[in-house]
């Protein structure tokens, strides 16, 4: 099957992002004078021949291994956050760089917001906010069973190959009001600037009627915010017209839905199945499971198999 991927993560039409990974890349490539994050020395100061960036985040630099070791206890948390941000950014960008997966996500968002029966576009008075959960699940059913039955330690370092699954939370979506004054814009901050960027781009290309939705892609304790334009084909899919999809996806939808009506869960299950069937990883959505992923699979599996409830507040309900 033809697979149109954005190999270098070039902009995807109708998808706009602001995230820590962009900042990391900016700092890495910026022509600014580096200084040691611990002692403040610059190249050439007091015998400093070279400054080396932290290999984990590239956000900071050190003049010596001693300075790096000294600062590590305080830098570790920030470094880990930056690495998690990059992990999410790569997954998300690989996901929506595939047009078919992006259509399925957009259609699922339409259903979650209940917009499938809208007769005509109406001006936005607020910005819907949707959470999309990202999980790496085992490629092998045997690995899944071992996690569920605690034959594999979720906190252990065993490598477990997996692939991306996505889910949308079941809670009522939040809505952010459209700012009417510069003061309101400033109060809403950088996120509102992201909305304005997406809205302006859609309007400039004659798509004034397409709504903009905030989508927070979350994995573990980190997330990445996107502003996604909802296009007419997503409304058609949500209404049951699948002509814009590939023959494989058109067949998968009734197979997955069975006797049930097609809903958010069905559309995302089809997207997840499409990812699972990508045996050669052309979508680049296969990853080794993190500890958070292993814990999620173990806890949700034990809840289904044995009725065990996961710790309160650990997981949001997702479709």
Briefly say what this structure is.
Pfam families: DUF8205, zf-MYND. The chain is of the alpha+beta class.
Tell me the major beta sheet: 7 strands, mixed
| SSE topology string | EHEEHHEHEEHHEEHHHEH
Oligomer: single chain
The total count of helices amounts to: 10
Low-confidence stretches: 1-9, 19-23
How does this structure look, described?
α3 (about 100-115) packs across α7, α3 (about 100-115) runs antiparallel to α9 (about 265-275) and α4 (about 140-150) crosses α10 (about 290-305). A hairpin with a 2-residue loop joins β7 and β8. The strands form 2 sheets. Strands 1, 4, 5, 6, 7, 8 and 9 form a 7-stranded mixed beta sheet that branches. Mean pLDDT is about 85; it is low at about 1-10 and about 20-25. It is globular and about 70 Å long. About 40% of the residues lie in helices and about 15% in strands. The protein is an alpha+beta fold and about 325 residues long. The two termini are about 25 Å apart. The protein has 10 helices and 9 strands. The chain folds into 2 domains: about 20-80, no CATH class; about 95-305, no CATH class.
